[in-house]
Amino acid sequence: MRGRQRDAGAGFVEYAGLMIIIAGIFTLIDQIGLDGLISTAIRTAVTNVTGG
């Protein structure tokens, strides 16, 4: 169990790093202006799937 105790604090650091990366991706999408394009594509795909 020594290996498990050594990695006890790694979960928080990895989680924080993942949140920073996700926030960066969302900021980039917003700054480039892809948010409208992405939402339109999702809306079109959902409409096609539901037949509406």
Q: Can you put this structure into words, describing what you see?
A:
By secondary structure, this protein is mostly helical. Helix content is 87%, strand content 0%. It is built from three helices and no strands. The longest helix has 23 residues. The radius of gyration is 19 Å and the shape is elongated. It starts with a helix and ends with a helix.
Average pLDDT metric: 86
Computed Rg: 19 Å
Q: Strand content of the residues, in percent?
A: under 5%
Q: Give the number of DSSP strands.
A: 0
Order of helices and strands: HHH
Shape: elongated
Largest sheet, strands/sense/barrel:
none
Question: DSSP helix count?
Answer: 3
Kindly report how far apart the N and C termini lie. 56 Å
Helix-strand makeup class: mainly alpha
> What oligomeric state do these chains adopt?
single chain
Low-pLDDT parts are none
Helix content: over 70%
Task: Describe the structure concisely for a colleague.
The chain has 52 residues and is an all-alpha fold. It is 87% helix and 0% strand.
Overview features:
52 residues, mainly alpha
List the helices and strands and how they pair.
Elements: H1 2-6, H2 10-32, H3 34-50
